[in-house]
């Protein structure tokens, strides 16, 4: 598991990269794909995302935890519940998550989208793959954050019997997750982005993003689009 500051392009080569941004980009992506959205195109910048509206995409944009100027959809997973946008193609840009996906494209064998809400589905899929895995934590503006690294610990813990751990960060986060897994909400209430979101009165998103295994799909990048792949 690496914070963005530690990602080096050679680390990615021919690995399966699991990109994670718990609060809230990858949690939102998995929720949307599990609720019938046909695809999500992650976009690094606001202007490109805005221009995709004219191509028939529903556009979703967030900066610093708030909907970006001119965007109807921000980045709350709750927006997509009850198949609210089923059948739609979405173009999405967020502060950190979509950038982390962009950075992971060069050399990855596959890019998956990781979240607590589909943790077991992602672990189950990875156990069937004969590949090295790199967990790319989006972090916050290039810095380490607690929730993404705790997810990395959770995934490492779920894979520990099937994979060898080649990174001290992964060992540390596995231990941190196993110590706090019984009270993720309590432990992560101290996370800096949780506090940022609390200041915007979006606690409901935080609780939702920390619910384990709501969905049994994986999110996989196919070309430029994220699509759902059900896991039996
Ligand atoms: C991010 O990209 O860091 C998050 O999506 C920010 C957010 O939605 O609060």
UniProtKB/TrEMBL annotation:
<dbReference type="InterPro" id="IPR036702">
    <property type="entry name" value="ComB-like_sf"/>
</dbReference>
<keyword id="KW-0460">Magnesium</keyword>
<comment type="similarity">
    <text>Belongs to the ComB family.</text>
</comment>
<protein>
    <recommendedName>
        <fullName>Probable 2-phosphosulfolactate phosphatase</fullName>
        <ecNumber>3.1.3.71</ecNumber>
    </recommendedName>
</protein>
<keyword id="KW-0378">Hydrolase</keyword>
<dbReference type="InterPro" id="IPR005238">
    <property type="entry name" value="ComB-like"/>
</dbReference>
<dbReference type="Pfam" id="PF04029">
    <property type="entry name" value="2-ph_phosp"/>
</dbReference>
